[in-house]
Amino acid sequence: MKRTIKTTLIILLVVFVVMQFIRPEKNISDVVPATDLIVVTKPPKEVQDILKTSCYDCHSNNTNYPWYSNVAPISYWISDHIKHGKGNLNFSEWDTYSVKKKAHKLEELTEEVEKHEMPLESYLRIHKDAKLSNEQIETLTNWANNLRFIHQLGVK
Question: Where are the alpha helices (DSSP H) in 31-70?
């Protein structure tokens, strides 16, 4: 029995070490594309700061990685979060969306933020500065609703 436990632990250790060498691709871009939400919509600085602090790590083509993102299996978990976040809404590709899709994404953004479902609780545990105050939620949702209204009118 002891031998089986020891063998299992050795195998797990080897797998853990090997995982450190097989890393997921990082979501880092040196260029802010012309299609980026902030570039296209030119929101007020306060809104830009909220978006960059609370949204852009998972919903853009450029993530600011903390030190622990280099340790597997955490690196895989973070990569998966980013993949799903960008799959749902990628601010770096904002201007590639149709007017209808933009309006829908802004509506979803407002709902998620108002219900405190975004940013994710798991993200907030480590990124305390990403937690939105009621004032920030109001600022962001007012801006998003105004932008959504403009998109619904078909004005760019």
Answer: 37-41, 45-54
